[in-house]
Amino acid sequence: MNYPREFFDLNFAFVYRVSEILGQPWPDLLLAYTHTFRRFRLGAALDPHHPVWCQFLEGVRRSDDPAGYAHQFYLYREQEAGPLQRQNAFGCFSYTLEGNDAEKVLRIHFANLDPSGVSPLGRESQGQRLSELTRMFTQARQAVQPSCRVQGASWLYHLNGYRRLFPAEFTASLTTRPPDFPMLALWGQFLDHRWQVRPELAGSFLERLQQARTMTELEQAFPYSILMASAGIEIFYTFYGIGPVN
Fold first, then answer.
1. pLDDT 10s digits, 83-127
2. Residues ≥6 apart with Cβ < 8 Å to 87
3. Do the Cβ atoms of 174 and 227 come closer than 8 Å?
4. Between 5-22 and 199-211, two packed helices, what is the crossing angle to 10 degrees?
5. What are the two backbone dihedrals, phi and then psi, of residue 176, each rounded to the nearest 5 degrees?
6. E strands along 111-168, which residues?
C-alpha cells in the first residue's frame, strides 16, 4: 500500500508555517521539518547532500504543486527502491540493535502490515500482535545479553490497544519527548489502518497551524506527542512467557 497525497499535503502545510515563523525559505526546511527524506527511503542519516535528495529539491523548487510533486516523487522512489527490507521483522513488529554488548539497546518498531484489513491494534488483532512480539523476543534472547534494554518511541503509546501489548513496567516509564519531525513515529498519527489520512485529526492539525505564532505552538499543533518507554529486557521474557535459552 502507498501513502496518499493528503499525507504530503499535511507535511507541506506544516513546513510552510515553519517557514513563515522562522523567516526561512521552505525548501531549506524540508529536511528537518517533514517526513519526506525518510519517506523516500534514503537512509537513517539526514544527508542534505544525498544525490536523490538534491534531485528532489531541484524539482520541488520548480513545481507549481510542491506537495503533489513530493507525492509523485515518493511513488517513483517506491518503484525504484523495490520491496522494503525490514530487519528482524515479525509481522507488524521489528527491532534494531544499537550500542555495544555492554550497553545494547533493542528498539521496537511498528508498521501497519496486517493483511486482514482490520485495525492492527483492535481487540480482534491482539492475539496476533502478542504472537508476533513473543516470536520477536524469543529470537532477540538468542542475540542479546540479559543487560540489554528495550526502548520504544512513538505516538502509538497514547493508545490502549498498543500499550496493552507490553509489560506494565515498560509502559509505566513513558515520558514525552520533543517531536522528531522527520520520523513516521510522529506523522503516522494522521493515518488510519487503511493508510488513509484521518480527516478529523488532519482538520484539527491544520486549524492549529494557522493559529500558531511560535515554534512551540507549532509543535503543539500535533494531536499526539511522541512518548518514549524504556525497560530491561528480562521483563519482556516474563511477560511473553519466554523460557531460558537452551
1. 777 889 999 999 999 988 778 999 999 998 888 878 999 999 999
2. 94, 95, 96
3. yes
4. 10
5. -80, 135
6. 149-154
